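Our preliminary data section would be incomplete without showing what the modeling component actually yields. Below, a chain of 255 amino acids is followed by its predicted structure, encoded as tokens that our downstream tools consume directly.
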Amino acid sequence: MANGPLTPPPTTVAELQDEARSADILPEAVTPVTQTPTQDNYQRIFPAISELAIHSQFEDLVHTAENADLNIDGDRHTTRLLITTPLVLAYLILDKFPPARYVLTRLPDNLTSMPLVKSLMGLVASTGERKYTAVYSRAEALFNIVTQPEFFNASLSQLTVGMITAFVESFRQRTFALVSKAYTSLPLLLAQTYLGLPPDQLLVAAEKACWSYDVSTQVLTPGSKGLPIHSTLSPAFSSLSTFNFVADSVARLEL
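Predicted structure:
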């Protein structure tokens, strides 16, 4: 048996809201929705390109990045540089200057005005013209741009630093091979110009390649075994810690 009259169900808007509040129920219409940030197609393909770079699969990287660069919509977006930057550096590592330059000519004006792209253009131009001191200084300039705290993408920064290192090393290796064939002897300062190495590292590499060094004349001479210096380089020579020396050397050489 009921103890009193039944309470009529809420009918007005005010009564319905009071009941919802008393039951601590948030109406479905105002339930907050958490939205997952969306990625564009350049961002989606970037991890695959990064993985190829990490494993030095630069031919595969070129194929993957070229396909993305030519077929993905939204080519004026800044995120396109997630593809363009490693693509250009991969071409340079593979010593393919013309396609590296062509990649940059495809970019729209709003991207070519960015410091990152301008720096890539300078590096490509110096590499194609074999301006040795400029190659090392412009590699350093690119390194400085991508390591700035305000750089727009941390993952691209990390990838670019690694690929700059790989490029400098590959460029230096090829230069060693050319120098060993072109010279019967060369001054130490000239060798530094070509290779962008401090004297102590350069002399260690020369000694391992059976080159001799005359302290009095500061001249390097290939040994009778004919071993090219580039065959003795260690990965340590590609360290970006040499960039400070390179910058100082370039400044002195270009005075």
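Residues 42 and 80 are 6 Å apart (CA to CA). The first strand starts at residue 186 and ends at 187. Preliminary results of this kind motivate Aim 1 of the renewal.
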